[in-house]
């Protein structure tokens, strides 16, 4: 067989792919769009590791933290950097105050010139936000004049909110609680790219990728089979004019190749378009620059080779059951009965690959990524292999019923493979999603925890800046819009000895109303002192809170009170109080003092924390508080409380799965609709003939519904079984107790069934149109 | 064209256009019970459209079709469907058997659509298959039988409800002459034995020879032909 002959046949197939007028082009376009969408998703997947690596690299390059114990002395080439991060609504804003020590101070990446005191350079997204009405409150918080923009090199994503503001006297701030450092360069090679991934989270990511990409592969395989029956008839006509069976297969391969190559081109186009659009999008607070989304050349080449190859193989595999004769297409009259043994090998092989991973858990070491990916893939491919056998076996045993049922069952018995193919994508997606949801539900406890904060009593906390007058600060917060109540608690730890004390007592100073937030008091008036006994984690109050005991402030703190030793003696009239959880969920012990009982010498040793109860019906209550905090101290970090704390990475993966699954199901639903319509068009004449001899439209519509409902029912049942099995294995791999998350199982199968129902409903109008008797016309 | 008294199905001044194409332009037709009428004419002359209009498959733009004293053109879609189900039978050029049903299920299908139980319908169907000499194919699917056999199954399906009118659109068009003749013999014999009228659309004189009367359709108009023996 000459290469020339091969290329001639392939070229003829390519011509056929686009021949046939509007219908031919439509078919080719459908195939190409289907393959293209799949290719775009694959390219995006191959680009994600690069994008994340690039983000990490830029994060490292702008790092201004030093982990060195040695302080860098002030010099011409040093810079003072103080954190001024803040949050606006639910978006993080990266902020830094900068003060160069000399003309050679290092500039942050993306910053052309240092902003002067009172000025700032901002990211394009922050500039846009500040200029908009939406950013009005943030504008109040950042009262600096904008003197420039941060270049791409200084940002990790196109939508990142960031600023560098010029500051003065930052050294003093560094002596306080503000976070910052004197640095001589940006970037930290010792930092590493990021925290190492928790093995369980890594497992989740791997499985999410496989689960989302497997249906895409199934979708591509379905897309290259669009218009298959018409192609077979065309090949039969070629046989009539002398083409042998090998030639027809090569021509068919050429057609598939042309469709998939066009799909590759379209897919690349979709990807490039998506890349540009991606620059203006932010997903789960992560944005990228188009330049980040570069597929790894090796993986992109793999996609370019694998997709057309898969298209050709799928086509040739599909032709296996079809005999194309010169006088027409003969579906092999009695297809060989499907064998179960090799179909079972796939999921069993998958389980065998996953078996060694059982019990690895996060403490016993990492999972072997190749075994995990291979095992999950085999299990999911097992669904596509098992489903035709299940459908064939079950429909062969289905009894007779009404005409609609009989038409549907007989059709399924004759072509159960086509029916199974139609629902393969949905079944794979549902199986994977069920497994993942089970795993998510199982490990959720490890990544989400009740925060212990009592958000019914307070929703934010803030430290009173050092050196600020406490009463004035409390007043500022009380006057802040949306603040209902301020609970101010000041404390200091006093030791049992002047030098090297053995034990400490926590002294909490507050007015009676505030003290009642941390203890149950018998009665209270200014000047009272209470000893709290029996609180959690406090075993020392008992002997320290005895009347007449002298307690000492930490010697290290004497600098704050002018080198004088500060002591305080427990008064005789000290009373007992019962511990009560404070709004942070902790039980305080020690001694409670009302302000009238506080000696003036201790005042300087107190640090004060404010718990703020907000009126959440007021819009932007949180941001009004943050504005007040920033006004009092630009480096302050007010804390917003949540009742549940969720690991960020865990939350991102879970949301990613939901969004990805929705996209994949929509994609599969579209392919299902296209193949459903194609099948109906192929049967136009028969439908018209059935109508001609009086078949009710309801009967035919019902028959179409049964034809979809039976395989999808079986598919979802199989998917639920495989999904739960995979979920159980994944849970065992992470050392979790096996527990079927029924709500997930039911919701995922429900979503799968809903997709099919929607597809069936959408295909009804064209079906009714095709059921007109004038479909019998040939001229 | 005059319409003799006692006609079962009468069409008068039928007009039908498909876009710019005129398919029927004042066509006339009538048929008696037990009569076999061949509708002849070249391709595209409008003979199939005439058959579709007579059978209530397609509604003419104007004109009248009377079946057994009832005006077909004024019937609703469901009434026409019911008429086709109970009174008419159809044979098409390529049989149009449902590929996924077995031959006996195909033949029983019109009875089942009329509400018969599966067993009763298949028993009757088998009787007709015997008459058309295809009872040995009962468990086979249409894809497993020859064109001639399939067409005989289609004839059995058309006759199984004892229709009063049988519409046959090029019933032998896809068959060789030997098979075609056999199908025609069986079709006309069976129809005559049940006193069914047969509207036979064909362009083959050989097939038309089985009819009692011939009508020629040309440019959407019909006229009776004198039979030259």
TrEMBL record, chain A:
Signal sequence annotation: none
Protein name: Integral membrane protein
Basic and acidic residues compositional bias, start-end: 560-585
Chief location bin: membrane
Entry annotated with the keyword Ribosomal protein: no
Organism: Streptomyces viridochromogenes (strain DSM 40736 / JCM 4977 / BCRC 1201 / Tue 494)
InterPro entries for the chain: ABC3_permease_C (IPR003838), Membrane_comp_ABC_pdt (IPR038766)
Keywords: Cell membrane, Membrane, Transmembrane, Transmembrane helix
Stretch list, region Disordered: 539-588
Regions that span the bilayer: 28-48, 200-224, 256-278, 298-319, 340-358, 370-391, 656-674, 712-733, 745-764
Pfam families (alphabetical): FtsX
Localization terms from the record: Cell membrane
Recorded topology in the membrane: Multi-pass membrane protein
PANTHER family: INNER MEMBRANE PROTEIN (PTHR30287:SF1), MEMBRANE COMPONENT OF PREDICTED ABC SUPERFAMILY METABOLITE UPTAKE TRANSPORTER (PTHR30287)
From TrEMBL, chain B:
SUPFAM superfamilies (alphabetical): P-loop containing nucleoside triphosphate hydrolases
Domain of life: Bacteria
Gene3D superfamilies (alphabetical): P-loop containing nucleotide triphosphate hydrolases (3.40.50.300)
UniProt-listed Pfam families: ABC_tran (PF00005)
GO cellular component: plasma membrane
GO MF term list: ATP binding; ATP hydrolysis activity; transmembrane transporter activity
Keyword field contains Ribonucleoprotein: no
Keywords (A to Z) from UniProt: ATP-binding, Lipoprotein, Nucleotide-binding, Transport
Residues annotated as domain ABC transporter: 9-229
Record-linked InterPro entries: AAA+_ATPase, ABC_transporter-like_ATP-bd, ABC_transpr_LolD-like, MacB-like_ATP-bd, P-loop_NTPase
PANTHER family xref list: ABC TRANSPORTER RELATED (PTHR24220:SF685), IMPORT ATP-BINDING PROTEIN (PTHR24220)
Protein's UniProt name: Lipoprotein releasing system, ATP-binding protein
């Amino acid at each position: 067989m000459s290469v020339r002959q091969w290329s001639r046949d392939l070229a003829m197939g390519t011509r056929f792919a686009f021949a046939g007028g509007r219908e031919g082009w439509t078919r080719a376009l459908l195939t190409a769009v289907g393959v293209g969408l799949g290719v775009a998703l694959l390219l995006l997947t191959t680009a994600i590791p690069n994008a994340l690596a690039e983000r990490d690299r830029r994060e490292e390059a702008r790092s201004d933290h030093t982990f060195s114990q040695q302080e860098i002395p002030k010099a011409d080439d040093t810079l003072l950097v103080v954190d001024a991060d803040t949050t606006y609504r639910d978006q993080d804003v990266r902020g830094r105050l900068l003060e160069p020590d000399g003309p050679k101070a290092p500039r942050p990446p993306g910053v052309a010139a240092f902003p002067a005191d009172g000025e700032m350079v901002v990211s394009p997204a922050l500039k846009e936000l500040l200029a908009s009405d939406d950013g009005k409150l943030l504008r109040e918080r950042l009262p600096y004049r904008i003197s420039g923009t941060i270049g791409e090199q200084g940002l990790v994503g196109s939508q990142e909110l960031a600023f560098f503001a010029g500051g003065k006297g930052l050294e003093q701030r560094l002596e306080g609680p503000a976070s910052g450092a004197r640095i001589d360069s940006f970037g930290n090679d010792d930092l590493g790219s990021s925290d190492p991934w928790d093995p369980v989270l890594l497992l989740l990511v791997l499985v999410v990728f496989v689960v989302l990409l497997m249906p895409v592969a199934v979708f591509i395989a379905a897309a290259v089979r669009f218009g298959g029956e018409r192609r077979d008839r065309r090949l039969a006509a070629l046989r009539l004019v002398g083409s042998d069976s090998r030639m027809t297969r090569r021509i068919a391969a050429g057609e598939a190749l042309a469709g998939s190559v066009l799909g590759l081109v379209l897919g690349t186009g979709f990807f490039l378009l998506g890349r540009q659009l991606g620059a203006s999008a932010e997903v789960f607070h992560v944005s990228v620059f188009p330049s980040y989304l570069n597929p790894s050349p090796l993986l992109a080449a793999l996609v370019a080779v694998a997709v057309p190859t898969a298209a050709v193989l799928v086509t040739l595999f599909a032709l296996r059951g079809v005999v194309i004769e010169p006088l027409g297409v003969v579906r092999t009259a009695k297809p060989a009965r499907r064998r179960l043994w090799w179909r079972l090998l796939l999921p069993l092989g998958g389980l065998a690959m996953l078996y060694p991973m059982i019990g690895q858990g996060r403490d016993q070491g990492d999972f072997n990524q190749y075994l995990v990916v291979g095992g999950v893939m085999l299990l999911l491919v097992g669904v596509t292999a098992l489903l035709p056998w299940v459908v064939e076996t079950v429909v062969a045993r289905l009894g007779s019923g009404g005409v609609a049922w009989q038409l549907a069952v007989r059709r399924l018995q004759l072509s159960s493979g086509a029916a199974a193919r139609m629902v393969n994508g949905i079944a794979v997606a549902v199986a994977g999603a069920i497994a993942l949801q089970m795993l998510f539900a199982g490990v959720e406890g490890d990544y989400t925890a009740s925060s212990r904060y009592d958000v019914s009593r307070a929703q934010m906390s803030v430290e009173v800046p050092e050196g600020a007058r406490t009463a004035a600060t409390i007043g500022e917060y009380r006057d802040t819009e949306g603040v209902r109540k301020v609970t101010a608690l000041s404390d200091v730890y006093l030791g049992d000895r002047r030098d090297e004390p053995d034990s400490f007592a926590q002294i909490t100073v507050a007015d009676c109303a505030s003290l009642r937030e941390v203890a149950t008091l018998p009665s209270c008036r200014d000047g009272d002192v209470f000893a709290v006994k029996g609180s959690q984690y406090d075993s020392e109050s008992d002997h320290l809170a005895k009347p007449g005991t002298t307690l000492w402030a930490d010697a290290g703190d004497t600098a704050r009170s002018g080198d004088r030793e500060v002591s305080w003696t427990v008064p005789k009239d000290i009373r007992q109080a019962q511990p009560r959880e404070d709004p942070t969920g902790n039980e305080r012990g020690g001694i409670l003092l009302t302000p009238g009982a506080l000696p003036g010498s201790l005042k300087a040793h107190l640090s004060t924390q404010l718990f703020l109860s907000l009126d959440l019906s007021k819009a932007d209550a949180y941001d009004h508080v943050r504005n007040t905090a920033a006004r009092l101290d630009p480096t302050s970090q007010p804390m917003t409380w949540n009742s549940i704390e969720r690991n960020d990475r865990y939350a991102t993966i879970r949301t990613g799965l939901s969004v990805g699954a929705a996209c994949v199901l929509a994609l599969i639903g579209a392919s299902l609709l296209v193949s459903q319509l194609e099948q109906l068009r192929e049967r136009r004449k028969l439908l018209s003939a059935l109508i001609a001899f009086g078949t009710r439209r309801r009967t035919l519509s019902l028959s179409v519904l049964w034809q979809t409902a039976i395989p999808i029912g079986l598919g979802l049942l199989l998917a639920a079984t495989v999904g739960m099995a995979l979920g159980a294995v994944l849970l065992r791999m992470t050392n979790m107790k096996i527990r079927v998350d029924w709500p997930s199982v039911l919701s995922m199968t429900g979503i799968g069934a809903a997709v099919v129902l929607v597809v069936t409903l959408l295909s009804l109008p064209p079906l009714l149109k095709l059921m007109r008797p004038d479909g019998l016309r040939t001229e | 064209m005059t319409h003799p008294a006692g006609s079962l199905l009468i069409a008068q001044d039928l007009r039908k256009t498909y876009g710019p194409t005129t398919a029927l332009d004042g066509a006339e037709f009538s048929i008696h019970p037990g009569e076999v009428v061949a509708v002849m004419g070249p391709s595209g002359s409008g003979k199939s459209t005439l058959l579709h209009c007579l059978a209530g498959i397609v509604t003419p733009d104007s004109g009248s079709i009377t079946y057994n004293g009832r005006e077909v053109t004024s019937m609703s879609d469901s009434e026409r469907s019911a008429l086709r189900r109970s009174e008419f039978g159809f044979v098409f050029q390529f049989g149009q058997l449902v590929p996924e049903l077995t031959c006996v299920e195909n033949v029983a299908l019109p009875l089942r659509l009329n509400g018969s139980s599966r067993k009763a319908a298949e028993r009757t169907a088998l009787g007709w298959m015997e008459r058309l000499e295809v009872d040995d194919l009962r468990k086979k699917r249409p894809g497993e039988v020859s064109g001639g056999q399939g067409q005989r199954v289609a004839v059995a399906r058309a006759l199984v409800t004892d229709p009063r009118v049988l519409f046959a659109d090029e019933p032998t068009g896809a068959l060789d002459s030997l098979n075609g003749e056999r199908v025609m013999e069986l079709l006309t014999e069976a129809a005559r034995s049940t006193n069914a009228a047969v509207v036979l659309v064909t362009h083959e004189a050989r097939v038309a020879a089985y009819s009692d009367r011939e009508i020629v359709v040309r440019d959407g108009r019909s006229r009776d032909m004198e039979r030259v023996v």
